[in-house]
Structure formats: structure tokens, C-alpha cells
Design a protein that fits this description.
Length: about 525
């Protein structure tokens, strides 16, 4: 669909977003013979991988399972070049998918949905966009992504800054020349950890403003040789069987022992081997990491020892060591030479927890009474996770009920897939879903296939609308809360709890029971005639 075309009339389904979720949702609903329209705010497909083009951006899941599994032909045609793919390669992959399955004709680019209003009488949604377009549809499917609403902290003085500033989630497509520049980076989460080593190599001087240090582990990224690729392609059936049956959506061995079942020498041996192997296995050695404080502290101490042995300056090393929360209670990240970067002469670490940022000045950033002069300021400050993208759209369900009002105490959804009071509105990877704790494409495929199966059931049985009952939704929300209760996840101010957004209700927004358990529960709901849902013919 060309940019100049403005769709009108009525559709069977409107999908919001053209990333991993939206592309596959379109593919599946087309198979059902439905007339579909995808709205995408960007000028290209790709979702998070279209917007996040900052230096060093890459995936924390390994490439051969950070992809779709639904097409054997696609799996054999596409060849990944690296163990952990970078942003450009993932975006190229999604462009390849859009072309291979001829999806672009039903995608309206450069178009942001502004409202989605349900009409009780017609049982239709009216979807409006920032370009003035209005369409009616029976089904609305949110594919907006849990990490798409950029969080720009409210620091006084930004408008006065005479240099250039950027948010990593809205990085200029033409890139940014950092050569010879004095650069400041605010944020040391997943994005900052990827960004900082690359910026340090380009900038004249880099100042890192850190509020809370993060636990990071080495990726050990490498090119994939032809023999490795051939082995992967020959065993994809088994790879996907193991991924879909695992708690994390990854074809990796799940820990079967608790920390207390081995002595400390064996525990250290396992951590050392996993550290050298690289990737997420280093945090998957024992099954009680998030329930046993001793198990968690042993892992955290191991990480702190690695920091101490890597960073030359003991004071800098100490400031880089997380001590105020359990390991993995915030999103752990992978890195390439992150801690090594702080050995460079052109890199400075500033602790803004001890002395907070006062303001942005015309020439830089003031911390307490000290001003750091900067030419470029980069916000690696993450996102208003899970609910932020929904809040940007005026969504109203039965009797005009507003979604933002329903979520005033925190976002809720039945299975993370549908919301009571909002008929025929489906949410891929919505609140109370395990997706952002898993290898996301596996969770996306599950949710898309479940939603497609539900819509197929509605079409076959001539059912006009479906929505969860309030009771079913609340029971699921309580189950999600019970699953995380008593774990170490609640002992950190993470974005999983909404703690990075001032004023956001403190609610753990994800399901920690694992992808395998979630998949089983969703299957049971469908097999029992969509238990917990109210349908109207």
C-alpha cells in the first residue's frame, strides 16, 4: 500500500503495528480469508527493529531461534551471519519476510492510530489515525509491542541545551557522527550496555551517567560458519520443539538442580564454564535462582568478582557492581566489552544515584554543583513498558469505557490476550503475559496462533463478539500475582514493575510461570470452548 493511499470502508480486522507480531498476524488472518489492514507508524516494517538503530543495537537471543518457525521454507532460505544478530540484520530479515509473503499491500506505513472506539449497537470498532483516516472493523489486534513507547525523563533544561540530543529508541536513520565529540549517555540498562562500548570507540570523550548499575554477562558473539548453519538447518524441528516446551522459549537445557544440591566448587565451575560460553546460560545453572537468596547471592557475587577482575580502577569497579537488588530481578543483559570500556582513558563514570542530576544546561549536564560539558547527549532511558503504547491511543470499549481508566491501578488482561469490556480486541504479548521474560518471537508466534484460532472459531460458529468475563480476568491477574509473590523479582525497582515511570502503579506486569506453562493453560482454555470468555452471536 503506497503512502498516498488512505484506506476507507470496512475491514474484518485491523492490526496495529508491523513488527514481528503484526506481520505474522496479517499472514495468519489472510489464511482465514479475512480482509485485513495493518497500520504502522514507521516508514517501514520491523517494529522495535525499525526504530532502535542506535550504535551496538543487537539481540540478546541467538539468531537461529530469534525468528519465525511457522515456515520451513523460510527457515531454509534465510541464513543468519552471527550468533547474536545486530539490528540491521534483523530488520533485513523482517523486510525479507514481508516481501516473501507479499504482505506489504495490506500495510499502511507512516500512520499512527490515534483512537479505537467500540460501538455497542453495530458491534464494530472505529479506528482513526493521525492522517485523518477512519475505518470500521470487526476485530482489532494490538501488535504494538511491549517496549515501544520511549521514556524521556523529565530533566529541567532540555530545551536550553545547545548541543544535539537523541533517545536510543528514536535514533536517526542516517546515523549520528560522534567523531571528536564530547558525548554523555544517561542510562546503563540493556540499551546503554550495548551502546556505551561503541560510542567510546568513536567519541573524543564519553561520560556515562549511571543511576543503578546492571548485571551484565558476555555475549561471546561470533560469525556463524557454514558447518554450524548447516547443522542448525538440519535440526530445526528439534530446536523448535525444545524452544516451545521451555520456560524461556529457548532451546537451552533448563536447570534441574537447586544450588544446595552441589558444593560451592561445583557451582563455581558451572558458572565459569557458562561465562566462557557466553549468552544467557550463565543465569540458568540452578532452578532456585529467583527463590533462594543464597543461590542468588552466590551468582551475584560471581558477577561482582568478574567486574573487579576486569575493571582496573577499584573505585570504578565498585561503582559498577550492583549491590542493592538481586541478580536477574532486573532484566539482565548481554554485552561485548562493556566493563572493559571503563578502562579507556576517554571514558568517565558518574554516579548520579549518590549525587542526582540537577539539570541540563546550555552546554551540558549538571550533577550537583559540577557541570559536565557535552556536545551530544544520549538518553538510553528505555520505555514505558507494556502499557505505554496503549496509553497513546484513545481505546474505548463497551459503553464508552476507556482503557486508561480500567488500567488506572495497573494494566490487566486475561492471559495477556484479551480484556474484559473490550469485545473483539486482542493483544499480542499484552499485560500478564510471559513474553518479555522469554525469547519474544516464540511468545509472539504462540499468541498470534492462539488469536487466529480463536477468530477462526468465531467465524465458523457465526459468533459476533468475544471478550473475557471480569471474573476470569481477575482470576488470571491474581494467578499472575501469586506466581511472582515470594520471589526475588519483587525486590528490585524494575521496569517490569513500572518503577522507571514516575507515578506508574507498582504492579508486576508479566507472568513468571514460564512460556511452557502459559502455552499449556492457553491450550486448555481453547479446548474447553474458550473457558472464561463471554460470546454473543
Amino acid at each position: 500500500m503506497t503512502i498516498g493511499d488512505e484506506p476507507a470502508g470496512e475491514y474484518d480486522a485491523v492490526i496495529i503495528g508491523a513488527g514481528f507480531s503484526g506481520l505474522y498476524m496479517l499472514y495468519r488472518l489472510r489464511e482465514l480469508g479475512l480482509r485485513c489492514l495493518v497500520y504502522e507508524a514507521g516508514s517501514g516494517v520491523g517494529g522495535a527493529w525499525f526504530w532502535n538503530r542506535y550504535p551496538g543495537a543487537r539481540c540478546d537471543s541467538e539468531s537461529h531461534f530469534y525468528c519465525y518457525s511457522f515456515s520451513d521454507e523460510l527457515l531454509q532460505e534465510w541464513t543468519w551471519s552471527q550468533r547474536f544478530p545486530e539490528q540491521r540484520e534483523i530488520l533485513s530479515y523482517l523486510d525479507f519476510v514481508a516481501d516473501k509473503f507479499e504482505l506489504r499491500s495490506d500495510i499502511q506505513l507512516d500512520t499512527r492510530v490515534t483512537s479505537s472506539i467500540y460501538d455497542d449497537a453495530s458491534r464494530r470498532w472505529t479506528v482513526e489515525t493521525d492522517r485523518g483516516g477512519t475505518v470500521a472493523t470487526r476485530y482489532v489486534i494490538s501488535a504494538v509491542g511491549g517496549l515501544s513507547a520511549a521514556n524521556l525523563p523529565d530533566i529541567p533544561g532540555l530545551d536550553d541545551f545547545e548541543g544535539r540530543w537523541y533517545h536510543t529508541g528514536r535514533w536517526p536513520h542516517e546515523g549520528v557522527d560522534l567523531g571528536g565529540q564530547r558525548v554523555g549517555v544517561i542510562g546503563t540498562g540493556s540499551t546503554g550496555t550495548q551502546l556505551i562500548p561503541v560510542v567510546a570507540e568513536q567519541a573524543a570523550h564519553l561520560t556515562v551517567f549511571q543511576r543503578t548499575p546492571n548485571f551484565s554477562m558476555p555475549a561471546r558473539n561470533r560469525p556463524l560458519d557454514p558447518e554450524t548453519v548447516a547443522g542448525i538447518k538440519a535440526t530445526y524441528d528439534e530446536i523448535w520443539r525444545r524452544a516451545k516446551a521451555s520456560p524461556g522459549g529457548m532451546p537451552l537445557p533448563a536447570p534441574i538442580q537447586s544450588f544446595d544440591e552441589v558444593d560451592e566448587a561445583e557451582a563455581r565451575r558451572r558458572y565459569e564454564a557458562a561465562w566462557e560460553h557466553g549468552g544467557v546460560l550463565v543465569l540458568q545453572q540452578f532452578n532456585d535462582l529467583m527463590t533462594n537468596p543464597e543461590s542468588n547471592e552466590f551468582a551475584a557475587s560471581f558477577f561482582r568478582e568478574k567486574i573487579a577482575s576486569t575493571v582496573h580502577d577499584p573505585d570504578v569497579a565498585r561503582r559498577l557492581m550492583p549491590t542493592s537488588y538481586p541478580i536477574a530481578a532486573k532484566r539482565p543483559v548481554l554485552d561485548t566489552n562493556y566493563y572493559e570500556t571503563f578502562n579507556r582513558a576517554n571514558v568517565e563514570l558518574v554516579d548520579v544515584k549518590a549525587t542526582p542530576i540537577s539539570c541540563i544546561t546550555p552546554h551540558g549536564l549538571r550533577v550537583g554543583e559540577h557541570e559536565y560539558e557535552l556536545d551530544i547527549l544520549i538518553f538510553a532511558t528505555g520505555f514505558d513498558a507494556v502499557s505505554g503504547a496503549f496509553a497513546a491511543i484513545d481505546i474505548r470499549g463497551r459503553e464508552g469505557a476507556r482503557l486508561v481508566d480500567k488500567w488506572s491501578d495497573g494494566p490487566t488482561a486475561y492471559l495477556g490476550l484479551a480484556i474484559a469490556g473490550f469485545p473483539n480486541l486482542f493483544t499480542i504479548n499484552g499485560p500478564c503475559n510471559p513474553a518479555l521474560l522469554t525469547n519474544v518471537p516464540v511468545s509472539i508466534e504462540h499468541d498470534v496462533e492462539w488469536i487466529a484460532g480463536c477468530i477462526e472459531h468465531l467465524e465458523r460458529e457465526h459468533i459476533a463478539t468475544i471478550e473475557p468475563t471480569e471474573q476470569a480476568e481477575q482470576q488470571w491477574v491474581q494467578h499472575v500475582a501469586d506466581a511472582v509473590d515470594g520471589t526475588l523479582f519483587l525486590e528490585a525497582d524494575s521496569w517490569w514493575l513500572g518503577a522507571n515511570i514516575e507515578g506508574k502503579p507498582r504492579r508486576f506486569m508479566l507472568y513468571v510461570g514460564g512460556h511452557d506453562d502459559f502455552r499449556r493453560r492457553c491450550t486448555e482454555v481453547a479446548e474447553q470452548g474458550y473457558e472464561g470468555f463471554l460470546t454473543v452471536r
